[in-house]
Amino acid sequence: MTACPDWRAALRAAAGAAFAADACRGETLNFETPAAFFSRLTEKRWAMLDTLQGAGEVAVRELARRLEWDVKHIHEEAGVLVELGLLERTERGGLVCPFDDIHVDMHLKRAA
Questions:
Q1: Would you say the C-alpha torsion 76, 77, 83, 86 has a positive or negative sign?
Q2: Cβ-contact 87, 52 below 8 angstroms
Q3: Which of 10, 12, 15, 44 is 20 to 30 Å from 27 by CA-CA measure?
Q4: How does DSSP assign 35-102, residue by residue?
Q5: List of long-range contacts for 99-103, beta carbons under 8 Å, 24+ apart
Q6: Long-range contacts of 70-76 (CB under 8 A, 24+ apart)
Q7: Per residue in 4-42, pLDDT tens?
Q8: Which of the residue ranges 13-17, 75-79, 98-102 would you say has the lowest mean pLDDT?
Q9: Residue 97: is its pLDDT beyond 80?
């Protein structure tokens, strides 16, 4: 995940790196600003990712028990992470995090 105000340049750079690579380099999410990043990836959503990473498929009720949240809240928070592609819903209605490693890269520069 990156934060880059010039999303077009970031997309071109990611595409160039992908075509030059011999193997899959993973997926990249880009946010225009750190504020956009933090509005979508909140502390609670990070906790959900942390709980699901490497856990395989987890039922929504079981995830609610593990996080000590209500089921409705799990559905709301998971919806955002599914939309971003960080979680997947299974055919049985469970949730799974398909990533073993999530790397965040952010550069903050003073405006010229």
A1: negative
A2: yes
A3: 44
A4: HHHHHHS-HHHHHHHHHHBTS--B-HHHHHHHHT--HHHHHHHHHHHHHHTSSEE-TTS-EEB--S--
A5: 99/53, 100/53, 100/54, 102/1, 102/49, 102/53, 103/1
A6: 74/48
A7: 667 677 767 767 766 676 655 567 777 888 888 888 999
A8: 13-17
A9: yes
